[in-house]
Amino acid sequence: MSNTVGHNLLQQSLLRPVVLEHQSKLHSSGTHPYSLYRPGSVTNSAAQIGKSFLSKKFYGNSLNKQKARLTTGTGGQVKIVPQAVLAMDPASERAGKFNLDGNIELQVDVKLVTPGSVREVNIQIAHSSNSLLLHWGAIRDRKEKWVLPSRHPDETKNYKNRALRTPFMKSGSNSYLKIEIDDPAIQAIEFLIFDEAQNKWFKNKGQNFHIKLPMGEKLLPKVSVPEDLVQVQAYLRWERKGKRIYTPEQEKEEYEAARMELLEEVARGTSLDDLRAKLMKKNDVSETKEHPVHQAKNKIPDELVQIQAYIRWERARKPNYSREQQLREFEEARKELQSELEKGISLDEIRQKITKGEIQTKILKQPDQKKYFHAERIQRKKREPTQLLNKQVAKSVEKNSEISVEQRAISAVEHFLKSKEEQNGKSVFSKKVFKLGDNQLMVLVSKPAGKTKIYLATDFKEPVILHWALSKKAGEWLVPPPAVLPPGSVSLKEAAETQFSINSSTGLPGQVQSCEIEIQEDAYVGMPFVLFSGGSWIKNKGSDFYIDIGHGSKQVQKVSGDGKGTAKTLLDKIAGLESEAQKSFMHRFNIAADLVDEARQAGELGLAGILVWMRFMATRQLIWNKNYNVKPREISKAQDRLTDSLQNVYKSYPQYWELLRMILSTVGRGGEGDVGQRIRDEILVIQRNNDCKGGIMEEWHQKLHNNTSPDDVIICQALIDYIKSDFDVNVYWKTLNDNGITKERLLSYDRAIHSEPNFRRDQKDGLLRDLGNYMRTLKAVHSGADLESAISNCMGYRSEGQGFMVGVQINPISGLPSEFPELLHFVLEHVEDKNVEPLLEGLLEARQELRPLLLKFHDRLKDLLFLDIALDSTVRIAIERGYGELNTTGPEKLIYFITLVLENLALSSDDNEDLIYCLKGWNHALNMFKGKNGHWALYAKSVLDRTRLALATKAEWYQQVLQPSADYLGSLLNVDQWALNIFTEEIIRAGSAAALSSLLNRLDPVLRKTAHLGSWQVISPVEVVGYVCVVDELLSVQNESYDRPTILVVRSVKGEEEIPDGAVAVLTPDMPDVLSHVSVRARNCKVCFATCFDPNILSDLQANEGKLLRLKPTSADIVYREVNEDELADSSSSNLKDVISSSITLVRKQFGGRYAISSEEFTSEMVGAKSRNIAYLKGKLPSWIGIPTSVALPFGVFEKVLSDKSNQAVADKLQILKKKLGEGQYSALAEIRQTVLQLVALPELVQELKTKMQSSGMPWPGDEGEKRWEQAWMAIKKVWASKWNERAYFSTKKVKLDHDYLCMAVLVQEIINADYAFVIHTTNPSSGDSSEIYVEVVKGLGETLVGAYPGRALSFICKKSNLNSPQLLGYPSKPIGLFIRRSIIFRSDSNGEDLEGYAGAGLYDSVPMDEEEKVVLDYSSDPLITDGNFQQSILSSIARAGSEIEKLYGSPQDIEGVVRDGKIYVVQTRPQM
Fold first, then answer.
1. Is 1077 a catalytic residue?
2. pLDDT at position 1131, please?
């Protein structure tokens, strides 16, 4: 028999009679009659068997205690009321009617609904709020303290074990609530009403509402129910209610409610025998009566039966019995003891034999239980990844935006010191603000060469005297030397006095008094002072002011920026409160709790500000404790308050879950009561138990009493490691240093730690035991995300340690999955395994099991959150430990590990849809690998590229949301610059994203090699010579003009950029589409353009910056070498000019008198090549190729509309802006575009366009209402305005085209709501092979293909000689597809497109009338990816369409089209450039 029954038995005591090792006096003499499910432990040393009545049931996996017999129900009369049968109960009576706030009516009705026990309370309030809560409790035994009934409406929450909170139901303009009370001892309920949204309480004239409950009227004759039946009924009620964990008060309520239910059965005429048979589920009542064991029941005390049943259960290896098995086990135990009694053994002797385990027991072999996991691995449940989908998106952050909580004017003192700060520049050393009632005192310290300057300024109205001194060590008051005293100062015995002077500067918003002190010596470290004004001494909250001027402080940084992109006002407030916050963790956590709601109101950036502040604290960038003693319990209570506030935001604002999780990860769990106080008490236990009261233990003791911190967890671990290493002090220092604690930091505590550990060998075992127990206490306060303590807080525990956490009881969280404890046990068993794969599976299975509870907003939500955060963190640690295991593994295992880490990241992320579809993609890749699909590596490469894009998007979000706040707040708080520079990087590294990125980097070369992709994708194969120049973004240099041939090595290329003059090559790790604008530009301008997949090659190219290289590309590779300038002279690269023919000209088009024309009327004088080509195709292609119906607004219509008198103001403004543009003010381009959008439509234009569209069979937008026409008109104007977009303007300027001569027709087509869109080049653009067709395909509309949308399209080539055999080159990695309702698109068609020698296509905008819907794509369910036959059919059809059009024109074509329901449509074609 084991010594203890702990939390492995679900924290439930099985035996009352066995004395607890540390039993409190409250229970030493007997068992509380209502301790139904009280935790406890059993020891078999000196066990004494007492007397109490025991039940025949188990609790969970254990036997459970019986109540002592109660007097209730054994005598007297019980009142009961017959149950009502009417639908409308006339017995209902009005209990009260109240007016709230004068105009809100509250009505309360009560009635009896069940004889003798259940009373129903109906509450109705005439109030339209959706956020009303009933804050309530019950009155019993005429006591004022509320009891909390166990029966309550759904969604009721326990409020700090002091009250219940139940939300009202909404019905029209009223709110209502029904409560049923089944405890007959409850005499009344009391309540308040709370409007959560308005933070407003409704009371009854300042008091609680008090509603008396009716009692029964019909008397029953005296009846009693055997206690064992009451016990069984209580158990059945407990099972029905989901096996909740009850408080002692709730246990009592449940027990009495069970008794009343049985009494009601008896009152209806049920006999006790029938009642027993019903409860025991026995069919033959007479059998029960005649059972021989029952004849002998009274001979064996029930408590002995219970103990023997427990012994049987232990010997049977603690099986999980059903209720019937539990009852059977009791009977078997009774038989065994009866057998002993019949041998003539006395009860006392039987007691002794039980204690020694000497009773003969026959145990049936238990069938092997089905385990949730094998010894080495769990069995993961199959789940669809989309079950993890979370589309919650926080409010987007606009560039350079500022979210302001409240605006505050800068004070006169701040103005004054800001001017001083600007004067002193980089020599500013520190600054401090003191709040003195309604006034401010600000101090600025600067350290110009060889001296220290101290500026003090205040806005006091009355004269101020500075009473001050200098210090060479903290706490000293030394008289300042005469040379230091400002003019007019008076030297005293141990101080000096200096009068503040009124500042005469103009421009200040108020009066400022100031004083300036200059110190030449370096020996002083500080300046203590007090102020005297208005006849009173002014101190800093009862203490002297103190300014640090020593060399140990950090130099103040210049404030970074103006707070754009931050909740600036909130951050300013945090900075102003930092001097108070740094006193102790108690102060910091309480201030943070006060600011949580303010941060929530500021949205995403407000919570980002709290996260940044807490992160600065956690990484020790802020002072943890300064001259302030605080009890550990006060710290833990403040932590509890902060985490409660964060929990409440989490419940109501799912769009901020990710930020809130990150904030919680920086804060310990905390807890009310003695959770923190134990830190103080238990260090004394260690010292007393192990005779180590001096040296380091005493110094640590003093630090713990003064101000405990997360450092104490590390110190404790360092001491444990030191002892385990056979007292090697180097191990002690290594643990400290590895966790950021240096000797200097130990000395910096208010109660410094000077000594090293020096323990005796005979202390080893005791110290390891006690420090291990103490670590649990420390982690309970400081390490909310520590895995072991987080599991304990959720699963519950009752401490058994000697002097450690004595009497501490954490109840298990209700509603956890039945297999969850076993799963967490597996995790803890394997948490340090070298083979991390089973551990990762266990951790992720635990997170998946936990997730539904996190979505239900449990009353102990924060404990569940801390557990989830701990599991998340352990995944990252495990994967990093497993890197070595992956060094020699194959691709299958690498992919599997990627799926695990990606699953973990998705579980922790808001807006995780892209991550979920990446996960589905990897699962599909794994299946392709296992199925030996030849394209598995090519497909996996596309998923890898998409996953990298998803990680980049996540990193950009962190950078955008967090970094501005880190920079701004960090500069205000004087945080080290290096910490600010890497702030976002460290946040990312702390999560799964960094581990995932590392795994992708390992797999990438394997996939490229397997898929024969090589290290390059060459988009434009041109041999060049040039000087290497490394840049971050092509966009940032697109308007540059290099004066020598330049090879650009560029980190980021989006696809819509221009290639700058003088650039002969663009090499990038980015992956623009082969048919993107920049790719087309590169080929047209004979610029080498290629994507490099190998980071080592890219690094080598970057290392060659400034050197002259020759690039020699093939269709799949680039060879490069360094050359001398002689080769440059011979190279065609030197011919930087005249790449574009100077003979290109534009011919100005005139208005032809028509506002709209049909496709039959398209001519070169009326429309551009885009419109003419689509008209030419009509009727000339096979019927299986569709051509959309088209009309156009011809050349000159824009100019005609602009010249109309109704648009005179627009025309005048455009003239002014064009003049600015001609003068080089390129910002005018955006203003011109906005001005064009102000044009008014001419009636004749509207009428002509309507007629042409309707006669061509196209829908007229105006038929759907005026608003729809306005949408169409706005789209037309946007096409015209795109003449002035930056890319188009600079492109014409570069080739010296007259921009004024550029005219814009508008091609109008009905949008085909595409399944897929494609672009065909009938000659392979990468190789120049005219026998091959090259095609790119995207899902949805083609804008993602030709626009700057990240990721790659599906690409394939097809030999013209074998159009039925397309050859895949790459699978798609674009995360976004565009889809649209049936609509109209207005396409740009300028006279500048498709000029000989100039590629103007794609420079101008095509605008749909309706906005496209962005859809995150799931390729794993796309038949174009997964169905080989469908893929072959669609791709070969596209290739055949390209071949047909090329034959029609007789020259290579650049063709755009879509696929809808398997049919091919061509929307435009033009000559391939």
1. yes
2. 60
